[in-house]
Sequence to fold (1562 residues):
Amino acid sequence: MTRVVAPTRARRGGDRARAMTRLAPLLATLLMACTARSAGSSRAKDRVVVARASDATNLDPARASDLESLEVAEQVFGRLVRFAAGRLEPEPDLATSWSVAADGTVWTFDLRAGVTFHDGTPFDADAVVFSFERQIVADHPAHEPDFVWARAYRNIRRVVALSKLRVQFQIDRPYAPFLANLAIGPAAIVSPTAVRRWGTKFGRHPVGTGPYRFLEWIPGDRITLERNEQYWDQRARTRYLVMLQLRDGRQRMQALESGNADIVEQLDPDDVPLVRLDPDLRIVSAPASLVAYIALNTRRKPFDDPRIRRAVAHAIRRDAIVRFVYQGLATTAVGPLPPNVWGARQDLVSFNYDPERARALFAEAGFSGAASRPLKLYIPSVPGQYVPAPERVATVIRSCLEEVGFPVEIVAREPAELQRALWAGEHDLALTGWFGTNGDPDDFLYNLLDSDNATGAHPTNISFYSNKWVHETIVAAQRTTERSERERLYAQVQSVIAGEAPWVPLAHPMVIFATRADIVGLAVQPSAMALYRGVGHLDHE
Amino acid sequence: MSEREGESSGEVPAPLMVSTPVPVPVAGRSSGSGASGPRGSGPRESSQGKSLARSGLYLLSTMLRFNPPDNRRLPLFRRRRGLRWRLSVFLIVATLVPVVVVAAVAATLVFSSVEQGIEFEAQRGLQVARALLLGEVHERAKAAAALGNEGALLSALARTPREVRLRLAELSERQPSALLEVTDAVGRVLARCAGGTCNDAIVSERFAAFDPADRSPVVRRALEFERTISIEPAGNWLVVRAAFPLVDPALRLLGTAVVSAAIDGPVADRVKAELGAAREVIFYRGTEPSASTFTAPTGARLLGPPLPAAAALATSKTQAPVVALEVANHAYSIAFGPIQDPAGRRVGYLGVALDRETLAAARRRVTATLLLGALSVLLIAIALADVLARRLTRPLQNLHAGAMSIALGNLDTKIAVDSADELGDVAEAFRVMIQSLKENQEGLAARVRELVTVHQIGRTISSVVDLDQLLRAVVTEALTVLRAKTVALALTNEGAKARKFNIRAVAGEPVGRRLADMAERVAERGRAFRTASVEGDADFASLAASAGLRGPLLAAPLALKDRTVGVLLVGRLGEEAFSDSDLRLLVTLADQTAAAIENARLYTEVRAFSENLEIKVRARTAELERAKAETERALGDLRMAQTQLAHSERMAGLGQLVAGIAHEVNSPAAAVQGSVDALEETVRRLEAGGRDLFALGLSPGAIERYFALIQRILPSFSDRVMLSPVETRQLGRRLRGVFAGLPGADAAAGVLAELGPVGESIADELKELAEGKSLLPLCGYLRELAFLVRASVTIRTAIQSIRRIVGALKRYSRLDEAPLEQVDVHAGIEDTLLILSHQLKSSENGINLRRSYGNIPRISAYVGELNQVWTNLIHNAIQALGVGANGEILIETGLEPGAIRVAIQDDGPGIPPEVLPRIFDPFFTTKGKGEGTGLGLSIASQIVEKHGGKITVESRPGRTRFEVWLPIAGRDGVPTARAGHETHGKISLGGTPGQGSATDRTSDRSRVAADGGNTTGKRPV
Fold:
């Protein structure tokens, strides 16, 4: 009986085993597919990956001048005041309140209690003093000569810690944009402990009080930030923020389409129609505080003559350029101020496309293109924030000007080299732009058109435009804290500048991001940077 | 096999133990142990077993096995399920449920993961397919852009449409599947080419469904320089349309280039090729299938399945829906995703299908395996369950039989279980239980009797509140209930120091009366006890003997909480001994008695207490009335003292005032005195001068002119211009020049110079009328006259000053007698300042007084009292500034709604904040002892309150400001009838800020007045 039964059991078991063997690979694959999928989705949900064309250069806010670096610093550092989401209006950040003395030169800030830097150093008035002194005091132990923003704070005479949570700034004259300047990147409050520890390498190990803390930087590849769980305000929605560098626009789009990236910054206008056709993707755009313009070097002939400058403005088909190059993602500029900056005038005298008028003005000024040397138009050799297709624009400008008998030679340069050439004033015309960091009209008018900034080694007024009345009015407006009075002064300045035409204003581009459809909370600032604090996946908390 | 064993089991005496047939080895062992089952099972079981065994349905027999006792009484269909049956079922279920659950869960998991895997694959495929489709779209866009950058085309465009067509035909050869079109700068189509030809007939036939480009919005946007891509429905298909503006180098618009291509079968094939095997692609135009890679068995291309509703409803935010559909008799899982145009409108759908055959196969295999497994487990479980059930239930059945017998009342039943396991223990326990059951039955009956008795006694004694009556009831009851011969109840003697018992009640034989000492002994023992013979108890023998007590004794202390209030003694005098139940009865009786005694005692106390209370209340009331009279008298005294103090403050103020006045009056009086003294001398010199003048012997004409001269210049003497000594000497020299040559010229010039400019003005006239005689007498007389006039002026001024002071004093001092009148506050302040001017000027104070008077009306007030307010406040300010300080006092008046405000402010050191709240308190002073009464500000405050106003103070170093607010109408006046008065009335004018009592009254009255005037919104009817 036993002999009979045992083989039966064995056979039956064997059958089952064989069935299992046959089933096993199937089960295994399915199980793997299943877990891989859930793991994949959960991994994706606790991080937001941002694809950018360029990597950051330096994460020390005192050194960072490129958008990519500043944007990372924006997430890592806190400032005394910060710009409210979507507006360039300062609101409390590390300072809870502030006051300014009647004479406008003493600003006192009360600081937020209980805040610590990511490395555990407590935030206090000494940290504020340290953060500014290292930029403005030349013999400060942590001062470096390549701090690019020292200029922005040169009017600060002293920074004094009145108590543990109260700090005072003494500035050398009343200066209206002062508060707004404390909200921009370099005003970040750095951890003194970390700066002392890392010295010049602080830019690779940034430590601040922001919503994200720095985790890792693989240069040329990615920067990873992790949520600061101790952030004093609403903590970030997503645990990890990854800034991925993908140089090629097509690559960025593929990463986005496949879900390997959640957000693509500074979308190529050519990709916009494709994004619109993909139901999984979304366009997020915001008017930027940006101006793209053609600077005419007023220090050199023939642009020292305003008539010739006006003639150039009449000769260029500006509307067509804006529509063709920016593909509807910019507005045509009439003056230096973007429409979303307060005080911007839209009713300025504008030089419409009129080649006959241009020729007449040339004749009136006694200028003959044939006799003239070809004028040098400097352009960046790579697409950028201001002009997505600089060579195309340059070609159009050349064609337009040559039509009115004005020979032009295009000089394309790498951005850094272009910057040096413009500082040196080698150009006759330059295709360039400016992004407003602090939302104040002064940022545009003073930096770009005031005679103060037409001198020195690093002039920002690269048309070298100089007008005594304009200078005095701009400075007067700086000393005025009354908004309406400043608006009045700036209105006058804008109309004088428009008439004198040191520029041909081109466009105010929008900032365009593309995101996956499940990404929420993306706030693109007019400063072209994004606030990643509230960004996350729709169904992930 | 089972058949044979079944038959053999039919013959064994224990038919219940029929062996189980499967599984074989286990069943064999089981049947062996089953055969060694209990001996002597009843014949009922046997017959049962036989009948079932005969039935041959083994499984059924297991389930239908009945309990033997019930078997006899119940019809078959209502038979109770036996323990063994239940045990079997339970074991089978317990084995099967986990197996089935695990199998089901495993199957569900496997199916769902297979399903999910397929869904996931389909969704991924969809994602890839969409990317590929967008890639196609991108290709078209690039093609359009290429056309836009085609130099030859652009130059052709600048020439003729024919050249454009030629050029475009060439270019179209490179893109055989696409339609290429070029429009001019206003959007008219210039050329339409495909596959190398621009022949309209051919092109229109191939792309019949396509509208010409000039009707497409992409062209309109391209004319605005925009590079556009769109997916549009056209005919039966979706069409990709890319347009590109054609511009010259200066960005002049020449036209547009449009590339269109259908999303058709070949596109689907290309996508499918990229996706991999076993996947199909479907495109929908709107919700209609337009192209797919499905093929019919004949090889013809199929359109694809219709779009399921779930796909059309899904939103892009959620995962793409996956639907199982059958196409060409083949099951597919298809993921659907929308295709949208640039504006986000859905123009169609994309589907990616996955063959479900693999899934179906896996499902079949899994189901088969699981079913087979479950079935084997079921069989094993049934076999095992039966064996186990059999072994477990046999002793239980015996036990059950015994228990049933006992339950029927037969307590002598023996239970035939002797196994050495838990069941044996249970049987043993049963035996013990039956034994004690018997005993308990008997005890219970006795206890019930006791309880009835106790209940009766309790009811009797608890209804009695009179103590003696109660005690009598207790002993009587005890005697009866306990069938005793004597009962004594002793209570402690309250009040006595040592614990002493008195016999309070006795029943039966009188022997109880002498048992007090024994009670004491019982109380010491502290618990109830019984003794069969009191003589045998060492504690009580002698006492009992002396009382004549013998035989059995019951004693119980009456315990109340923690103390013993008495003792109950019960004796039978040598008869039957007391039992334990008697003792219990006594204890219960004792407890109830103790409680009842306490009740009685409390009742007595409560009655006594309530009688006491009334007396006490009367006494207390009388006391309170005395105290009230006392308080009233003290209050009267206090008021008198206050009045006296106010009076003395006023006197003190008067003293200061008199000092000031004395000084003020003293200065002009001294001036008068001095002038009067000089006057005598002057009159004497005038008389002498007159004599000299007469002696001069002037002509009558000259004398007349001289006195006319005097008459003219006399008034100017009173406002003489004072010359300095140097000027006087210079004037003298000039006059000497004028008078040169005349007799007495030098002396006369000196005298005349003393008269100042007046003297010079008359010098020539004098010289002339002197007629050569000496000028000295003329001038001397003039000088004396001048002195006289000046002295009289001085006196008049001084007297005026005195009159002014006296007048001020008079006005000021109309303290009490003055009636309520319309008062000029400014005048009152000025009077006060005048009176205090002594202090303001004196003692190097250098106080700077600043007035800032507003335009204020007269107010209704007591002038004298108000003046006292100003005096106190100004005086306070002066004192605050201290001696030697260069202080400033500001007096400011102003009109407020319904009131005037007088502020007196100084820049002294201020009032310390801790002092500030108390400054209006009477007798509060910061000055040294004897310097101030501390009543000044208090009185000021009282006066202001009396006027219905308020006084406020704010102080910090360098600024102390008192503000007095006085209602214009006065406290009792009728408010001025002004619009909005009531709102103004909200300003607190009350004495205490915040209470606003005066205000409220005022506005109440104003409302009353308004109502009386019928003006408050009530229209006259």
Notes: Chain A touches chain B through 46 residues (CB under 8 Å). The longest strand of chain A covers residues 503-516. Confidence is low (pLDDT under 50) at residues 1-17, 25-43 of chain A.
